[in-house]
Design a protein that fits this description.
The chain is built from 13 helices and 15 strands. It is of the alpha/beta class and 465 residues long. The chain has a 7-stranded mixed beta sheet with strand order 6-9-1-12-13-2-14. The chain has a two-stranded parallel sheet with strand order 3-15. Strands 4-5 form a two-stranded antiparallel sheet.
């Protein structure tokens, strides 16, 4: 094969050349922009509920870096070398946290503070990590959106208390809303509207259709430029545009959203259920679409810290979409709370069902990481090498166990630690060390975090700082 002798243009050359013929979208500018000096990795904070089945989640001591629940993620040929599992993380109360274990971990894991009583429930006792980072002047987010907090809470029942609706807090008992409307989020990030602008769902859907026309125009101009681009630049442009078009098409096939929510977002090959965030039947599709949205925002370098919650604190999803044999009517009380690791028939059945639910969440994290890893970032690296996905849980075990809260790091974090594909096993550690470690990784070193200002960072994790 004849070698490609066309000149290799840098990101700067590409944008300069494109600038004379089109208005390059911000997502493409960010994707090709040279990283700023000491730029932090893109950080994604995921929060799951109701703990894990211990026997099937944790790798066997001295065995392979694998388990029945984590298998698809830790054996993926691309992702396995970018996974680090944190063991021994114990919830460390400073005083007397409000509520129960769900409230403690839902607010405390990413804040380091005890939960506190507030109007209608238990709330965070201090700012969550996402808000600490966006207000720290040492963290240089450049022209990116600093933070988005979003989630899927599709349920047909009222939240147990108001404090469990969002784990993002600006300060003590000051809760920030969890954004649920995928149309509005898509529009605020990838349209020409100012970042953070909320829109009526119908307007947002229209914006998506208009955005496709803009992308088509961009694609035509980029096609004209291809004669000047090397293969790496061409491949990256194609990937960004095709990823966004695919996501747009999956959103646009839905019928008109209902009741102000992204009610009927569905892939084209399935039916369109009704009820939006009030219908759990939408939960699996919304979760998949949110993983794609988060991957696109991360791969396109659009958001500095994106936090996402799989449901509300102590959620009561029924997981009907998994079709698990023997699933009772109440997963929360009759499965998670019963999965004690014991040998009684009820505990064994609960452990089996809990394991299958845990596998669902692994599939979502795997999907997210795979899509982030598909975005090239130059020099043989991918967007996942320059990002960090943190997958945490509000509690350790279904019966409100708070010792050994499972946390997985996925990604290279821009080289800010040197050892991956292993289980951190340095003995019991206070959960505040997670926040202190992430602050250091993001370029804002601290001696402690939240309510434990001298806790230090996670032991056993090789930070390259």
């Amino acid at each position: 094969m004849k070698p490609d002798t066309r000149p290799q243009f840098s990101r700067r050359d590409l944008l300069k050349a494109a600038g004379v013929s089109l208005a390059v979208p911000l997502f493409l500018k960010n994707a090709f922009a040279a990283p700023a000096a000491n730029a932090p990795p893109n950080l994604v904070l995921l929060l799951q509920t109701n703990g894990v089945n211990v026997a099937n989640f944790w790798p066997a001591a001295g065995g392979a870096f694998d388990s029945p629940i984590l298998h698809p993620l830790v054996t993926d040929p691309v992702l396995s070398s970018k996974c680090t599992l944190i063991s021994g993380l114990n919830f460390h109360a400073i005083g007397s946290p409000s509520g129960n274990g769900h409230d403690w971990g839902f607010h405390g894991l990413y804040s380091g503070y005890d939960s506190v009583s507030g109007p209608g429930g238990s709330f965070g006792g201090g700012p969550s990590l996402d808000q600490v980072l966006v207000h720290d002047p040492r963290v240089n987010f450049g022209n990116k959106i600093k933070n988005i907090h979003c989630g899927v809470e599709a349920a047909n029942y009222q939240a147990i208390n108001a404090g469990r609706i969002s784990f993002s807090c600006a300060s003590r008992a000051v809760q920030l809303p969890c954004q649920l409307d995928l149309y509005a989020l898509y529009s605020s990030v990838f349209s020409t509207s100012p970042a953070g602008t909320s829109q009526d769902p119908a307007q947002a859907a229209l914006r998506i259709k208009q955005r496709r026309s803009v992308l088509d125009a961009v694609a035509r101009d980029l096609t004209a430029l291809e004669g000047r681009l090397g293969p790496n630049e061409r491949a990256k442009v194609d990937l960004h545009l095709s990823s966004l078009r695919d996501f747009e098409s999956r959103l646009a096939v839905a019928s008109t959203p209902q009741t102000g929510m992204c009610a009927s977002v569905q892939p084209s090959q399935t039916g369109v259920p009704t009820g939006g965030e009030g219908n759990e039947a939408n939960a699996p599709t919304l979760e998949r679409l949110f993983m794609e949205f988060i991957a696109n925002t991360t791969g396109c370098n659009m958001v500095g810290v994106l936090s996402f919650q799989f449901g509300r604190g102590g959620d009561h999803f029924h997981y009907g979409w998994l079709n698990i044999p023997g699933m009772p009517s109440d997963f929360h009380n009759l499965v998670a709370h019963v999965d004690s690791g014991g040998s009684s028939p009820a505990a064994v059945t609960a452990g089996r069902i809990h394991t299958e639910v845990n596998k669902w969440y692994t599939s979502m994290v795997t999907l997210l990481a795979q899509k982030v890893a598909a975005f090239p970032a130059g020099n043989g690296k991918t967007a996942l090498d320059n990002s960090l996905i943190v997958w945490g849980n509000e509690i350790a075990t279904g019966p409100h166990g708070m010792n050994g809260m499972p946390v997985m790091f996925v990604g290279g974090a821009a080289g800010r630690w040197t050892k991956t594909e292993y289980v951190v096993n340095a003995g019991p550690q206070p959960h505040q060390r997670l926040g202190a470690t992430l602050m250091n990784i993001m370029g804002a070193p601290v001696p402690g975090f939240g309510g434990f200002p001298t806790c230090g960072t996670l032991q056993g994790l090789d930070l390259a700082m």
